[in-house]
Automatic annotation (TrEMBL):
The lineage of its organism: Eukaryota, Metazoa, Ecdysozoa, Nematoda, Chromadorea. This is Uncharacterized protein. Residues 86-106 are annotated as: Disordered. InterPro entries: Alkaline_phosphatase_core_sf, DUF229. One of its GO terms (cellular component) is extracellular space. Residues 1-38 form the signal peptide.
Length: 783
């Protein structure tokens, strides 16, 4: 029989030493009633400590939860993947060092008494919240940068209930569900100064990591017109015995190295490795990688000429050049010569208000490359239903993408384009943390074996050095040279080329400045091709870590990736008015995906004359930037697929001066973090507490919005976090509720969480053994 109501009152007496575990009890936050109970169930639980709470304990007075029929599915284990040199040998990818956050040895302060919040589970089914991806960073300027990573977000969690995001009208019944004058009904966008005074202290425009590289180094081998051989200088010098081999793609984690052959050879592959010895010696003195484009045949070709007249056969090439973590205004600072050249030579359009839809590379990559929502976009704070993805995290991560490939790579390949894809980090957008990715090449030309070889544990240090900074090379050069060769390989075909460069720009904004000359020359070299193509010079999000990120300008830039667009010269005059208008509107990665689909599937059918909005089924929530934007979607964060955490609209706020309220709010958030760690039995993680006075701002309410943003540091570990709370009474902790499901980490955590494997909790886990290491270090210094 169905249960219509249930009331339960429980009184527990627990010693204070166990009180810090209380919030790990799921019932204190929300109870998921089994699916057999179809009606709403209310449970009231009262927990009373036997003594007055002391420092370090939490007083929980009351918690309520409304059940839901939502069921949960355990996260599937993701098996380890590796890199091999043959089809029989399997070598795991290297473990990647973190970013060196210095652990804190400061003693944990006392926790203020905190009263549990009223937490309400909505009856709307809500999919899992948390997600994870990474990007790559340089760790050394004296050799090829070693790849390290940050957890770029949170992986979905389907094994436990999550804190509920409560619509305000349920916290305060006096408020109507639909309120007039809500702050989210409009969006104020501001064009900010790229050289903000606040940023100047963080920037070193003249820094060049190659200043001390070996400028005299010259490769001994060359790959020209399909022939791998000694360079003229090496042949003239003599005394070398050199060999070469192909590196063949098998899966995203495996490649096959063919047998070594004495040079000269004609390798029938894109990625080639060379090595040399001195005659009479077995010691390898030279190890290098080359790339080329081995032409492939398809059933469809389209000739695109510079003097083309608009005919139905016109299919312009498309090129995407992406630098990870580069924001719009940052691009003006970091690539001044490149941007100036693009605007003068190609009349490039700067899309000023492109906005990310997720924290990091994975959700944004899924949006513009697949047109998919990678992780649920929670919209409760706006009073509208969440936006759910077509696939669960497990389905997108643990299953190869080949079967139902919805990527723009596949779409353009199917349309007869020659295609090329390259990333400069093996754990790229579709592979982190250990996702299957592709078992077969997603494009005609796929550079992945190049980076599998460089990043595997068995890769010789000599190879890494000569392909890195000691050899005066950087990873973005490898990708841009590969694209140069791709452009030149198919003069009579439409082409789709995509390169994603992470190492240069992901963590340090000062690394980009010196690359401006190189990138400008790349555009100059391909000027004729780009004049007759669509070119997207873009980022996936802004800088996510470091001191600059914690500035006011950094908080703006992180949500606003760069996008500069080139339109083919023959249709530029026709499309620029609409593109210019859209450049000042709030747009998202889904609009960019709609643009890619429009170019390949819709515009060719009408001879590139479409300027009015058209609903593109393959583009989730997106509008082509070449057309009028969807008139039924106001350009604000409520209507568009943008979580409030990443909303660029500028709202009026005021600082909360009451330090007691600020501490109370921050402690509430920290206890939720501790509860989450406890619910997964992550006993190797330290219990967190608030370190130093938190910063709290209140969004000035229209009809009592009562939204607060809390920024605080936690110890041990010195993690910096940001969270959103909603309450109708800021002095009453029982009215607190998370307004967003994220505990946003604002700084890198390095090796702090090496003791656990759960990526969702890594950002706020500080391993206890880090404390032991610090203690041992202090004892050694005393001795």
């Amino acid at each position: 029989p169905s249960l219509h109501s249930l009331s339960l009152s429980v009184s527990l007496s627990l010693p204070p030493i166990t009180m810090h575990r209380l919030l790990s009890i799921p019932a204190l936050f929300l109870l998921l009633i089994p699916s057999v109970i179809t009606d709403e169930v209310t449970i009231s639980t009262t927990i009373k400590p036997t003594t007055t709470p002391t420092n370090g304990t939490v007083s929980v007075a009351h918690a309520e939860a409304i059940g839901t029929t939502t069921t949960s599915t355990p996260i599937l284990n993701v098996t380890d993947a590796g890199v091999v040199q043959s089809t029989t040998k399997h070598t795991p990818l290297p473990s990647v060092p973190g970013d060196g956050v210095v652990p804190s040895t400061t003693k944990r302060p006392h926790i203020l008494n905190v009263t549990a919040a009223v937490v309400v589970q909505t009856t709307t089914k809500r999919p899992p919240i948390r997600n994870v991806t990474v990007a790559a960073v340089p760790a050394s300027t004296t050799k090829r940068p070693q790849i390290s990573f940050h957890v770029d977000g949170f992986a979905p969690n389907t094994t436990k209930p999550t804190p509920t995001i409560v619509p305000l009208h349920k916290l305060n019944p006096k408020l109507p569900e639909k309120r007039k004058g809500d702050i989210f009904d409009s969006c104020k966008l501001v064009d900010h100064e790229p050289w903000d005074d606040e940023l100047k202290s963080f920037l070193r425009p003249h820094y060049n990591p190659l200043d001390k590289c070996n400028r005299t180094f010259k490769p001994l081998t060359q790959l020209i017109e399909g022939v791998l051989d000694l360079t003229f200088g090496a042949a003239l010098e003599g005394g070398y015995h050199c060999e070469g081999r192909c590196l063949i793609h098998l899966t995203d984690y495996r490649y096959h190295g063919t047998a070594w052959e004495t040079l000269p050879i004609m390798p029938a592959c894109d990625v080639v490795e060379a090595r040399c010895k001195r005659n009479g010696s077995n010691a390898i003195i030279y190890n290098y990688m080359h790339t080329q484009i081995m032409p492939v045949k398809t059933n469809f070709t389209t000739k695109v000429k510079a003097n083309h007249t608009e005919t139905k056969s016109f299919k312009p090439s498309v090129y995407i050049v992406l630098f990870d973590s580069v924001a719009d205004t940052q691009s003006i600072r970091s690539f001044p010569k490149t941007i100036d050249y693009m605007q003068k030579r190609f009349e490039a359009t700067r899309i000023r208000h492109m906005n990310k839809v997720g924290d990091n590379s994975r959700p944004n990559g899924y949006a513009f490359l697949l047109g998919e929502i990678a992780y649920t976009i929670n919209k409760d704070i706006f009073g509208v239903p969440p936006l759910n993805g077509a696939r669960t995290y497990e389905q997108s991560c643990n299953k190869a993408m080949d079967g139902e490939d919805k990527s723009v790579f596949a779409r353009y390949r199917k349309a007869g384009y020659k295609t090329m894809v390259a990333e400069d980090w093996a754990r790229g957008v579709f592979n982190y943390p250990k996702c299957v990715g592709y078992n077969h090449k997603p494009s005609d030309h796929y550079m992945r074996p190049f980076h599998l070889r460089l990043e595997e544990k068995t890769s010789p240090q000599l190879l890494k050095d000569l392909m890195g900074a000691p050899g005066c090379r950087e990873p973005h050069m490898d990708l841009m040279e590969y694209m140069n060769k791709f452009i030149g390989a198919y003069p009579d075909d439409s082409k789709f080329g995509f390169i994603w460069m992470s190492v240069l720009s992901h963590d340090d904004p000062n690394l980009i400045f010196h690359a401006d000359d190189y990138v400008q020359k790349f555009f100059e070299k391909n000027a004729e091709e780009f004049d007759n193509s669509f070119v997207f010079f873009m980022g996936d999000h802004g800088l996510r870590f470091g001191r600059q990120r914690n500035s006011a300008a950094g908080r703006r830039e992180v949500n606003n990736p760069m996008l500069h667009m080139i339109v083919p010269k023959t249709i530029r005059k026709s499309f620029h008015p609409r593109l210019d208008a859209n450049s000042h509107e709030l747009v998202t990665m889904f609009d960019l995906h709609a643009t890619f689909v429009d170019i390949v599937d819709y515009q060719p059918k009408i001879n590139f004359t479409g300027h009015d909005f058209v609903r593109i089924p393959a583009a989730t929530e997106g509008s082509s930037l070449l057309r009028s934007l969807n008139p039924s979607l106001p350009r604000n964060c409520r209507s568009l697929p943008i979580p409030f955490d990443y909303c660029p609209c500028e709202f009026d706020t005021k600082s909360v001066k009451d330090s007691f309220t600020a501490w109370k709010m921050a402690n509430y958030v920290v206890e939720l973090m501790n509860a989450e760690l406890g619910s997964f039995n992550l006993s190797d993680c330290s219990i967190l507490s608030v370190d130093k006075k938190p910063d709290v701002v209140e969004f000035i309410p229209i009809d009592e919005t009562h939204l607060y943003k809390i920024e605080f540091s936690a110890k041990p570990g010195k993690g910096r976090f940001e969270a959103l709370l909603r309450t109708h009474d800021p002095t009453n902790a029982t009215s607190y509720a998370l307004a967003s499901p994220f505990f946003n980490r604002l700084n890198a955590y390095g090796h702090d969480a090496d003791c656990i494997n759960r990526a969702p909790q890594k950002p706020f886990c500080y391993c206890k053994n880090n404390l032991d290491k610090k203690s041992s270090s202090r004892e050694m210094k005393k001795g």
